[in-house]
Every structure is written in structure tokens, then in C-alpha cells.
Design a protein that fits this description.
The protein has 426 residues and is an alpha/beta fold. It has 3 domains: 3-174, 3-Layer(aba) Sandwich (Molybdenum Cofactor Biosythetic Enzyme, Chain A), CATH 3.40.980; 178-255, Alpha-Beta Plaits (2-Layer Sandwich); 261-420, Alpha-Beta Complex (Maf protein). Helix content is 42%, strand content 24%. It has 17 helices and 17 strands. The protein has a 6-stranded mixed sheet, with helices on both faces. The N and C termini lie far apart (62 Å).
Length: 426
């Protein structure tokens, strides 16, 4: 199997100022194309670190993909270091130069300066990959049977090169393996308990099929992976094993697709032609953000009231002041009222509500930090759940969002569709 390493370059990655999304996206796309990423490495803008990383990754991989450090400023040192590594010098690439001129003069209508023109410089020994989305070209080198590809760190530009040029090139040059995954999502069970429950299944897996546990925010993904030189027989074998896995976790199964919980909820609402609204206090709109991150969510999502202040709970959601006075904002009674108000005022079939103390302060003896009430329901019925979290503010918010979406999922699926309900009533 062809092995690939990814090197991302930039001090900003090491100090956490910028999150490295490039290598994650590249790994996903390469895997889809039939390639396995062997290693992912992040290094700073340092000559020795870059040279050492190139040597180390070439030891264990056939292809080394590099992003970052191709900008026009002094801290962008990737090109001169590549010249040193491949024993060559910088030259002007005329096609890249014309691209730079076109972008600055015709598109941006800005004057060209010397620093901009240096973007068209490339190592003389490389194969130039033109940048259709920016000014810095990509560069492909070969050394001792290994392929090195350097690309801009700007995600939009890198993605264009990867999809249009690099993946097709390495597919032709190296061929590709068959890689297939099947993933299911579980909720309501911990990773250790789940592993004990399916111990016999895992021990009996056929050669070539691997099981991975991917826990995150109170949910666990189970991923089966099979690899081989061709799909013949492997796909059907994986499907058979996957169906066996599903049959062992029915009480915790959320979906047998590798999709997020908010997409699962959206598919259910779409299928039933029903709508949803959110009434959020402690999550501050985060649940609505997750829902609307899914394309097509406008078909089922009505809107959200971010009722952070009690006055908004009263005025926008119609929460009775007596409820707030007697039970407080973080209470079962309040989230019930919030759901009722959202269903009524936003004219939705369903609504969910959140109210809690996310921290790091604001708690009390009766309601410590991490206390959360969530609710889900419709005009006829509302269910609630009390949660206790012990994490930082952001993780508490994210866990609340996951739990309230799953509460809604369980609520909807445990009730008959509207058409069936009408038939039962009539």
C-alpha cells in the first residue's frame, strides 16, 4: 500500500493561533481516493526542522505532501529550504508570473510590488503546479524514488490543487488501493461498556477488517475498515460484518451512517415533513448553529429564540414570571415552558430548550456549575432531562447541544408520524 505523509508548516500551528484543518481534510480526501495517510506532522517556520522533517518522512513514506510557508513575507521560508534540500535555485516561472499579474492588476486592480512578483519564483528542479485560486504555485519534486509536493497553506488554494491536480496525478502514478469504511453512531453508552458488550464480535472479525472506537461528547462511533487491492468480495464481506455489528447494539444505535447527530435529526424531520424550533439559554444559539450547518435545513428549521435573559424568556417565549420566581431559570418547569412558547410562537411541530450553568462560575449549593435542564416536545407532550457536567464552559455547551438533539431524536421516533397519529385519533 502506498504510504503518504503530510507536513504542515507554520509557527501559528504550533502555538495554537491557527487550527490545522488542512491535514484533516487532505487525509479524508486521500482516503476516499484509495490512499492511506501514514503520518501527519506539524512543524514551525524553522530551516532545520523543515529539513529534518523531510528526511524523516521520506524514510517511511512514498509521498510527502507539504502545506504552508509559501507566502511573500520573510517568515515564509519553505521555498528557499526546498531549494537547499533539492540542491537547486529559485527561478521565475513565466506562467505563474502571468497569473500573479492577472490577479493583482486585472482582478484586484492593485499595483504590483516586488514582493508580489516573488510569488512567481519556484525551485528550478520542480514540476510547477499552477494555482488557479491564488498567487503561490505548487511544486512537485522527485528524489530517491520519493515524491514531494509543496502547496500553499491557504485552505481554499490547497484544496483546489489537491482535487484538480495532485490526487489525479498520484492515482495515475502509484495506482490506488481499495479502502472502505462503514460507521455507526451510538449514544447512551460509554466506550468501555460498549467494548465489553461487543467483545465476542471484535474477537471474531475476519482478517483484513479492523474495528475502531471513536468517542466524542457522550457518543461513540464504531468504524469498520477493510483494505485490499480490489473491491472484489471485500465490500460484501464488510457489509455482512457491519449488519452483524448493528444487530448487537440496537438499544444504543443512533444511525448507521457516518453523519453528525444534527443531520440525523434533520433527516427524520425531512422524512416526516415536520419542523423544529429552538429555545436556548445556556447554549446561546449553539444548537441552532449546528442545525443550520446542514445544507437544506431551511426545509425543517423554523428559527431560534436565544432567551439568555429572563426578560426574554418572559416576553419572547411567554414563560410565566411565577415559574421563574418559584423554580428559577435552571429548572424543569422553565424548560417545559420554553418548549411550549417556542412551539407556539415559532409555529413549529417540535421545539427543544436548554437552560443551565455553564461555568466557570454562577453556580450555587443547590445548582452547582454544570447543572443543566433540557427539554423536547410538541404542542401535546414534552419530555425533560436533567444533566450534570464537570467540564469547561465550551465542552459543557457542546455536551448540552448533543444531549438535547438526541433527546429530540428519541422523542420523535417514539411517537407515530403525524399521518398515523391522525388515523389513530379518527
Amino acid at each position: 500500500m502506498t504510504k503518504i505523509s503530510i507536513i504542515t508548516i507554520g509557527d501559528e500551528l504550533l502555538i495554537g493561533q491557527v487550527v490545522d484543518t488542512n491535514s484533516a481534510w487532505m487525509a479524508q480526501e486521500l482516503n476516499k481516493a484509495g490512499f492511506w495517510v501514514n503520518r501527519r506532522v506539524a512543524i514551525g517556520d524553522d530551516r532545520n526542522d523543515i529539513l529534518n522533517a523531510l528526511d524523516e518522512e521520506a524514510e517511511g513514506s512514498d509521498i510527502i505532501l507539504i502545506t504552508g510557508g509559501l507566502g511573500p513575507t520573510a517568515d515564509d521560508i519553505t521555498k528557499p529550504v526546498l531549494c537547499e534540500y533539492f540542491n537547486t535555485t529559485l527561478v521565475i516561472n513565466e506562467e505563474a508570473l502571468e497569473n500573479v499579474r492577472n490577479i493583482f492588476v486585472k482582478i484586484l486592480q492593485r499595483p504590483l510590488i516586488e514582493r508580489n512578483l516573488k510569488q512567481a519564483e519556484v525551485p528550478a528542479s520542480c514540476q510547477v503546479i499552477q494555482n488557479k485560486r491564488g498567487t503561490a504555485p505548487g511544486m512537485l519534486f522527485e528524489k530517491n524514488g520519493k515524491v514531494f509536493v509543496s502547496m500553499p497553506g491557504v485552505p481554499h488554494e490547497m484544496k483546489g490543487m489537491m482535487t484538480e491536480e495532485i490526487i489525479p496525478w498520484i492515482s495515475t502514478r502509484f495506482g490506488k488501493d481499495f479502502i472502505s469504511h462503514r460507521t455507526l453512531l451510538t449514544a447512551g453508552v460509554g466506550e468501555s461498556t460498549l467494548a465489553d458488550h461487543i467483545r465476542d464480535f471484535e474477537r471474531s472479525l475476519p482478517p483484513g477488517i479492523k474495528l475502531a472506537y471513536l468517542p466524542n461528547y457522550g457518543m461513540v462511533r464504531l468504524r469498520l475498515t477493510v483494505t485490499g487491492k480490489s473491491a472484489t468480495g471485500l465490500e460484501s464481506q464488510l457489509e455482512h460484518v457491519f449488519e452483524d455489528l448493528k444487530s448487537r447494539v440496537p438499544e444504543w444505535l443512533v444511525t448507521d451512517e457516518d453523519i453528525a447527530l444534527q443531520e440525523v435529526v434533520g433527516k427524520i424531520l425531512n422524512a416526516r415533513k415536520q419542523t423544529l424550533a429552538t429555545a436556548e439559554s445556556c447554549t446561546g444559539g449553539y444548537v441552532a448553529h449546528l442545525i443550520t450547518s446542514i445544507p437544506g435545513s431551511s426545509r425543517y428549521f423554523r428559527g431560534s429564540v436565544i432567551a439568555y435573559d429572563n426578560d426574554i424568556k418572559k416576553k419572547m417565549l411567554g414563560v410565566d414570571p411565577a415559574i421563574l420566581s418559584a423554580y428559577g431559570a435552571v429548572s424543569e418547569e422553565t424548560v417545559r415552558a420554553m418548549v411550549s412558547g417556542a412551539v407556539r410562537n415559532l409555529e413549529s411541530d417540535y421545539a427543544i430548550a436548554t437552560s443551565g450553568i455553564m461555568g466557570p462560575d454562577g453556580g450555587s449549593e443547590n445548582k452547582p456549575v454544570g447543572t443543566v435542564w433540557i427539554a423536547a416536545g410538541n404542542a401535546r407532550e414534552i419530555i425533560t432531562q436533567k444533566l450534570w457536567f464537570r467540564f469547561d464552559r465550551q465542552r459543557n455547551i457542546e455536551l448540552t447541544a448533543v444531549n438535547v438533539l438526541n433527546l429530540l431524536r428519541r422523542f420523535i421516533l417514539s411517537r407515530p408520524p403525524v399521518g398515523v397519529l391522525r388515523d389513530l385519533i379518527n
